[in-house]
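Researcher: We plan to redesign the surface later, but first we want a full-length starting point. Tokens attached.
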């Protein structure tokens, strides 16, 4: 009749400290009445933080019905309590067994004070109204920060995205995108040290002119970011007064009210630092400091990998630039345009190559190829293939002999990578071309009348597989005004696209382009290429009427 739940016989009962004695109904009522007569509200928590008792006054203060609170965690039942410092104070009371207190804002404008009194059986909590905590304490903890669930989501997402970061700028972008909203910060600066100077790797929320004054300055213990790099110890400053006490030479220029300066640790050494800034005073309780330090560890590991990646990327591009022709020779009677685009993913380096060789006054050779892979090994092998092709071509060998000799060299080297290659001997005097292929995509010929044809060069085996492989050739006319299009598979291949359809589409683009402007034609072909998951090489050759 009273609406109380029926307790099954198997449900555990909470026994009083004195074994064997159950409180009578009168004693329980007297205890409840005692709490009701005292000012404020009272809540009982078990050792897991769940509410076991709540007085009507406490329910009224927090603005929730008692049946909604009983059995729940306070920060689950009351979203405005879902802030790190509430859980932190509960844990501190539970572990230290000493009283704790905090103030929190119940929206829209009611400030409540909480006093926690722990013992081995649980925690008693006293709740009362209080004045605006910010007036008494400028760094009072409020519930304006993000909830634990929000922080956890951003932390997990940050960890995931940082594993995919492929450069320092990626780390800067992902750190700013995830950390600032997760932690309620308004600005961030990512720093490192290079040659004894402070380097700003990236920032958000700051005036670039302000940071430019610090970029490149000598490392000094008077600058928070540089000091953290030297000591590896984080710094938390709830107000500028506290920062000035540690760094007296710092001036308050950024307009922020609180700062956290964290070391970025990798391989047990600081490799950088991150500065997080807040536009309101912030207390940085222990739980938040632990979160910030853990986050800095994630960023530090990602930054270390990103710097290694950037160094490898620069090395790979220098290697590839050295192996590709710096410029193509000027050959009378022949217009030539070349393009090379690195792959969008990975190191941005591959084994695609092209070359143009002047043999004598009336003949030239063109080669294009693709070494398997997108790494430094592929680039190194590409250089060997290009050198071998060049060496065989300059002695006047025909196309089948050029590819055959290069193939025997690669099988002897046994690099573990295969290579496709197309070689064209251009007789400009007789207006003829002779082509041979080693598993390479067939070239296109745009005739003078605009018709574009796929040249059916007899197929040959990829280089580096069989030393006895033969490479039959195809001869074709090379009249003035035609365009011979040599390309690698990155220009046509894409997942889910039929290669024949892609090649036909490429031929259509060649047919629609103006053969008098090879630069525009090359730009059109590259612009319509699939999203480059592979690198692309393109060589356009067009004889002119003045060839002898």
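Model: Full-length starting sequence:
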């Amino acid at each position: 009749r009273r609406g109380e739940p029926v307790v099954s016989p198997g449900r555990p009962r909470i026994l009083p400290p004195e074994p064997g004695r159950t409180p009578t109904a009168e004693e329980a009522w007297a205890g409840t009445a005692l709490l009701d007569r005292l000012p404020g509200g009272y809540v009982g928590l078990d050792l897991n933080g769940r509410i076991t008792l709540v007085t009507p006054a406490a329910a009224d203060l927090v603005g929730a019905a008692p049946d909604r609170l009983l059995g729940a965690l306070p920060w689950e039942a009351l979203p405005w309590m879902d802030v790190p410092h509430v859980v932190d104070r509960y844990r501190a009371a539970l572990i230290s067994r000493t009283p704790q207190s905090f103030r929190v804002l119940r929206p829209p404008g009611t400030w409540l004070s909480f006093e926690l009194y722990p013992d081995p059986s649980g925690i008693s909590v006293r709740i009362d109204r209080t004045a605006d905590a910010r007036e008494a304490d400028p760094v009072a903890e409020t519930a304006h920060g993000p909830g634990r669930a929000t922080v956890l989501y951003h932390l997990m997402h940050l960890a995931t995205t940082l594993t995919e970061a492929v450069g320092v700028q990626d780390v800067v972008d992902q750190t700013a995108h995830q950390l600032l909203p997760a932690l309620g910060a308004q600005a961030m600066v990512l720093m490192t040290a290079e040659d004894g100077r402070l380097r700003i790797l990236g920032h958000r929320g700051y005036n670039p002119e302000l940071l430019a004054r610090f970029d490149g300055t000598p490392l000094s213990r008077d600058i928070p970011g540089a000091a953290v790099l030297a000591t590896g110890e984080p710094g938390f400053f709830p107000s500028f007064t506290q920062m000035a006490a540690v760094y007296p030479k710092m001036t308050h220029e950024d307009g922020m009210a609180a700062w956290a300066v964290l070391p970025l640790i990798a391989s047990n050494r600081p490799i950088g630092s991150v500065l997080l800034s807040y536009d309101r005073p912030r207390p940085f309780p222990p739980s938040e400091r632990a979160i910030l330090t853990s986050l800095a560890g994630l960023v530090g590991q990602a930054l270390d990998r990103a710097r290694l990646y950037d160094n490898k990327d620069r090395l790979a591009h220098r290697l590839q630039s050295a192996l590709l022709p710096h410029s193509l020779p000027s050959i009378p009677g022949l217009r030539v345009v070349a393009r090379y685009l690195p792959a969008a993913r990975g190191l941005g380096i591959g084994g695609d190559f092209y070359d143009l060789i002047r043999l004598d006054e009336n003949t030239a050779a063109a080669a294009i190829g693709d070494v398997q892979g997108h790494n430094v090994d592929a680039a190194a092998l590409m250089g060997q293939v290009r050198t071998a092709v060049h060496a065989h071509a300059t002695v006047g060998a025909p196309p089948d002999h050029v590819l055959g000799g290069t193939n025997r060299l690669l099988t002897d080297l046994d690099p573990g990578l295969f290579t496709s290659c197309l070689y064209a001997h251009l007789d400009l005097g007789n207006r003829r071309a002779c082509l041979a292929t080693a598993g390479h995509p067939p070239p296109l010929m745009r005739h003078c009348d605009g018709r574009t044809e796929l040249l059916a060069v007899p197929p040959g085996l990829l280089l580096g597989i069989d030393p006895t492989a033969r490479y039959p050739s195809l001869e074709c006319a090379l009249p003035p005004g035609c365009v011979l299009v040599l390309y690698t598979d990155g220009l046509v291949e894409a997942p889910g696209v039929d290669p024949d359809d892609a090649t036909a589409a490429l031929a259509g683009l060649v047919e629609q382009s103006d053969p008098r402007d090879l630069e525009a034609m090359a730009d059109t072909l590259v612009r319509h290429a699939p999203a480059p998951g592979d690198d692309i090489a393109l060589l356009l050759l067009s004889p002119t009427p003045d060839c002898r």
